[in-house]
């Protein structure tokens, strides 16, 4: 009988057998806000990637000066209402230079999002590796790595970034360098979060069970610990993206960031700061873009968190293919009852 | 009007109907037990009585009336007034059901104040009073302790005290003793009994342990798959069951007197512990959980380890499988000293909640040892996992379900399946069946025996249920305070206990016969007085 | 109490090691930083010989390890220096003299520290209130208007650089509405009321920049504690949501917040730098950035160490607080 | 050309009165307050309230303010016929803040101090001009003193120079010429409380010059000082403020800010856009011109800038209007076609040798490039400073980059950090071929403008070199020497102008613009005087009542 059961279930299996990744998507899709946010993030990334195309469509580029479009006698404020919006310049022009704001905004997205995402990736990878290794390693490893984390946390980030950026020869591709440096000097908090979370996770019995299964420490870390770490790390990482954009801005402001004339949102914000009364658009555009990015990332990170947690399925009212399963159940139940009754009699 | 009136109750979690058309009532002052196998929907019913499913996404149908409140239609405020004041719930797990940050007295006082609006002082006084009432010695001082400073039994008492704080008409106790060892269990059940006698409150006892039900209630409702199987006075249902399922249930209950069919024990020693000691903490905080324990486990035999909570059973088990480094002494596997883990020595964990990764499907968890051994063929893995799940009484089609979708007992079976997947030679089972209903328990015990015979498995069976232990064990070790106080062949230990502590343990084992239970209750009182 | 003494000792040793390591790193990094210190110090039109003399004066010709040794010596035994007309003494712990201004670094720090501490501590109170408050609301009252508004505010705070927020606030609040004075640092000891009034805007600006982290973190850990069993217990006993959230869930959720706060003190220095610059508060951050741009190594090292010291201190304090809040925790 | 300033204080009774407190809102603190270490002519505004010097600048509006006039001395100096020996006599009744008399020996001591390595920072002229001064180490190490300065009596001081210097009276305006009483000298600590010889003394100096409070020096007598008006009783200098905050505060003019000025913060382009639309605010803006030129520098030792045609092509291609916009627009910058600033005192001649018009002459540039052998354009690297100074900063560099694009020249930018930038650019060994630079006047004359940049003997091999073109032409060197002999400064100015045009023909630099200073003053400020010497309002003239 048991053989027959196995056979029926094997044939049922594909129906109910949604793999982990598929279920994750199902749970993510069930959250409308998260999907809107994901769409927004995707759109932003798309805009960044397609920046040259978009600006070609507009017929502008981000570096050409248009002296005639600004009022030189009044400090270079754009001529015309709304920073000189026109069919040529969709979002108006930049004060002083007359460069096209739309072009600068979409090209700026490349640098800002690129640097921020790359730096965040470096921070998360480094932080998680160090944190998890410290938590799983012996006393000495833990001491060493925890001290290193302390040092990173205790050192003022901007200062180290400034100093390090000055040391590297200027030939090195700037955006890459900026991402790497931000990544390498600001992983401390993620490291601490990862270590603390690992410490509490590693005492759970399921980790012990995985050890008994014969898995290597590495595999245990990957399969049993990382998914548990994901929630706190993702929450924090979503906030690190804007803070990395801000760091890039500060570095640009201090003259060591991404080089002009390459635009970045951070740079735009920095120089637009004083223009907020005379040419509000100049400030509001990058600020708005950044706000949308942050909002989308935050909502998305929430959604991902929720979707990562299988327990959320019922709250989200996502089926896991239960109907078929329930039918299979019913078959099995009758079979079992019969068997029990047979045994009893 | 009766105290509880439930009509045609259904509870649905998504597609799953956990409770299906249940109708019952409970008179004032009466006691009803909901018994049934794990996952049959007992806890779900208990929660429904207090309206705890509200806002969780579960769909509740039918009508529920508790102490004059229509739970289904009551406003949030009315529900709030019901909870704790007229009907109070004692939860299954005393470890996590109290707030770790506040003194126990304050927590009880808070509940009291919420419902009576009295002064802080009065509430504190009441807290001390109820703590005293449930038998916490030196209650005034202990009321300032935080939960972690209480033992498991004391915590359970504290929870009961909290329930008593507002003198409710109905006490709902959801598996109040599952996490406790037999001696404490007996104390708690006795306490519930006395309280009921004295205050005249109604009791709804949720349990999968028929013995526990027999000891404490007048009426029994047997549940299965969310439906009622049989209901009636306890003597009738347990004495002359009408339904085959109930009969099956009763026949599966392990009896302390039952004699075990001898296993195929050999003389070949597979696992050996010599002078094991384990201390936690340093300096003043140092605490020796296991002290100078030596034992041997032979191929094909089962060694039962019994002892009260905190006596060091789990710690010993973890050292045996290599999850914990001994402070002194060594563990030898097949004659060779062994450090670290080895898939050939497996463990079934005590806590079914934390022993499964909530983010991985159970099938994947069970497949772990297979994959770790290098198995790559997905079909073979699926086949083997399904087979293992079947063997422990799970549905093989549940491969992709997550732990939270299983009841406590089902999760424990997953744990066993996972241990088996490693083709071990020794399994340390840490309370493997304490969360299981008797039928499953019987199946699992039978399964373990079968596997043992088939594979020559050696088992270390840690449990607080002496009846079960007797059923499976060839030899017994009795632990107390980290030491083994008595060891010997099972029959000898049970029939001629040498140590007074062992005698105490034996007296606490619940029995199926309500009359016998009453007798033993008086015996225990005498034992406690002397 | 011996447990606490042990904890204090271990932490002190750890802190000293951390700070020494930091000073070594800063020394090395600034050693390889381009920029001729002697030339900057001497002035733009100095002759090569003058530059040389200045370099000798500042011991810039010594090898790195000798300079570092001299620095350590200053910390532990103090240091004598020439003012030209007399010999000055910088007593231990001496962090050396500024290359640029010849002032003792310890004195510069002592003069500027109260400003930075006033700024950061005040802002910290605000960001904790704002952040934790928003976090609690958003875990508890998901989707309500106040929750959305507060969350939006904190996210706007994190996505707008502080110098933008600060300037806009200042122009509107001080310039147009005239509600507050243009911030100007007044020492607490001179006039506590003026001290507070002048710092309101800087506090608010810095708090807005930081609050989002705390809001998100509080929210996450609130959601976690709200799902715990003991919360369920109190629900089942008819305890009101307010008390459940405020007493039972929040307390458990605070531990990670405290820890983050301690870590964040270090990174909030970045925000503090910009705020000090914008509002003209003569604090450490402003001085530090200036010192970096002119490669004034003693000032940089001294200030980085002071900041590091406070971060380490805050971390230790967080652990103590944590242990006080949750008695199960043992200080290690 | 320069216009007169248009800020006249508020209406009504605009005659200045004594009394009140003047607030100064600055961004940079007065961290150098030692007369030996100050560089700027007269040490800038605030120090000139405390330090009197042998001569000083004429405190008048516009071009009249470029004159040098006596201060402690009775006249601007009496040269011998070669202009190598200069003699000064002190006025009578001069006293320090403690009432002790000022002697010529104190002036000598003040100058000697400035040679001490501990007190470095001043201008190089004393070291270059005084006999035997090159190796002098200052009075702390070298007790003998400088023999080039003689003080035959308490009121007379005589300077012996290596070579004729007709502009010595200008040099004597520098704070190194302020008296320092030897017994009050505290070395590097002197700056905490410099002893005043001027109308105000330091009563508070917090955080190394971050907050200064100056009060009347009762021992100063207006009878000995024709220049400083000293109307306010107290001067409160607050610094460390962000420039936009300073402008915001001045425009709001609330409370004490009504009686506030700034001595170091210009209106930025964005603020200007706002101010020009507001009559009341516009009436409070003071405009000034300081001798300053921003330019592109070539290093002809580096290819392709060795080719004059390439340099000329770039000169033609430059779009000055976009550069000016980047610098803040026509109100803040005036197009420069000459290296000398556009002021008479410098000898300005107004030539335009490579006319590029307002927006650049790309066609002419292409033509020249073709002649130079680059028919398909070329790629060059422009080095600039990363600091946000609107002089050598990225904005200017990108404007140049954009302009040259039209002429087929692809410009790559290399930005360096501030201190690295000066180290790299002003060093013969590391100097790039094409970079942004700027030069300001030490005093309003062509001498300190042309000589450091084009005098071949001022090429410094192993230190800061400002002759970035590394020009060493005998004719130029000789003409510089000849002009330096003149003690008739007007005649000298004419010849500086002619020399400028002559050097300009070589296209070693591309002058870009001369900055214009626009500064706000508070509502209650009177008697705003802005000379062309400093280009900013003179706080010794300001009244708040
Ligand atoms: N939140 C939930 N979401 C989905 N399914 C649930 C949930 N809670 C319980 N279930 C399912 O409902 C059924 C009944 O669960 P319940 O906890 O009431 O069982 P029980 O009788 O108390 O079992 P045990 O004795 O093991 O505690 C089980 O099949 C369980 O898997
Ligand atoms: N990691 C640990 N740190 C400190 N003390 C511990 C630790 N693990 C166990 N203990 C202590 O050791 C003692 C024995 O614990 P153990 O878990 O082995 O008991 P047990 O017999 O399994 O009890 P139960 O029946 O309740 O599971 C207990 O007092 C416990 O508090
Ligand atoms: Mg249950
Ligand atoms: Mg145990």
UniProtKB/TrEMBL annotation, chain A:
Lineage top rank: taxon: Bacteria
| Membrane-spanning segments | 33-54, 111-136, 148-170, 176-194, 225-247, 282-301
Instruction: State the membrane topology.
Output: Multi-pass membrane protein
Biological process GO annotation list? Answer: transmembrane transport
Mind naming one GO cellular-component term on file for this protein?
plasma membrane
UniProt-listed CDD domains:
TM_PBP2
Q: Enumerate the Pfam families for this protein.
A: BPD_transp_1 (PF00528), OppC_N (PF12911)
ABC transmembrane type-1 domain span = 109-301
Keyword annotations: Cell membrane, Membrane, Transmembrane, Transmembrane helix, Transport
Keyword Membrane applies:
yes
Q: Where in the cell is it found?
A: Cell membrane
Q: Which family does it belong to?
A: Belongs to the binding-protein-dependent transport system permease family.
Protein name according to UniProt: ABC transporter
Which organism was this protein described from? Streptomyces nodosus
From TrEMBL, chain B:
User: Which PROSITE patterns does the UniProt entry name for this protein?
Assistant: ABC_TRANSPORTER_1 (PS00211), ABC_TRANSPORTER_2 (PS50893)
Which keywords accompany this UniProt record?
A: ATP-binding, Nucleotide-binding, Transport
* Entry's transmembrane regions: none
Q: Give residue ranges for domain ABC transporter.
A: 4-250, 271-506
Signal sequence bounds: none
**An individual GO BP term:** transmembrane transport
Superkingdom per UniProt:
Bacteria
Q: SMART domains of this UniProt entry?
A: AAA (SM00382)
GO MF term list: ATP binding; ATP hydrolysis activity
Under the heading Gene3D superfamilies, the entry gives:
P-loop containing nucleotide triphosphate hydrolases
The similarity comment for this entry is: Belongs to the ABC transporter superfamily.
Q: Write the protein's name.
A: ABC transporter ATP-binding protein
Name its species: Streptomyces nodosus
Automatic annotation (TrEMBL), chain C:
Location in the cell: Cell membrane
- Chief subcellular location equals membrane
What is this entry's stated membrane topology? Answer: Multi-pass membrane protein
Residue span, ABC transmembrane type-1 domain: 113-322
Pfam families attached here?
A: BPD_transp_1 (PF00528), BPD_transp_1_N (PF19300)
Please provide the Gene Ontology terms (biological process) for this protein.
transmembrane transport
Which InterPro entries is this protein grouped with?
A: BPD_transp_1_N, MetI-like, MetI-like_sf
Q: Which residues cross the membrane?
A: 12-32, 119-140, 152-175, 195-215, 299-325
Q: What is one cellular component GO term in this UniProt entry?
A: plasma membrane
Q: Which UniProt keywords apply?
A: Cell membrane, Membrane, Transmembrane, Transmembrane helix, Transport
UniProt key word Transmembrane helix: yes
Q: Is Manganese set as a keyword in this record?
A: no
Its family remark reads: Belongs to the binding-protein-dependent transport system permease family.
Q: What is this protein called?
A: ABC transporter permease
